What does this fold into?
Amino acid sequence: MIGYVTLGTSDLERTAAFYDALAREMGAARMMETDRFIAWGNPGGGAGIGLTKPHDGKPASVGNGVMVALAARDPAHVDRLHRLALDLGGTDEGQPGPRGGFYAAYFRDPDGNKLNAFVMATQGA
It folds into this structure.
């Protein structure tokens, strides 16, 4: 149902490096790019993620209650994505672990946007 998700950034170059590394770990890459916007994903695949300088020219801000969930392959992949996010300057919002039916870890990107990596229990959590 979701086509893609776009998050705001105040520093496209800095935050793009964060998403380049996460995308590589997930087997994806940049698929669109302008001087104000970058999108990652796999053409013909599932939903991707975009990063943009806000069109109205105002500073980017974090939506309260907004989170992007990244589908991992297995719990070890959740662990790797969480560790990678923190190594890239992200901040911890919840260590990897079981969460009532799924396995997940929560973190924020350098702009403060909240993400998680997860795998459903039926996939090995």
Q: What stands out?
A: The first strand starts at residue 4 and ends at 8. The two ends are 24 Å apart (CA to CA). Residues 70 and 80 are 12 Å apart (CA to CA).
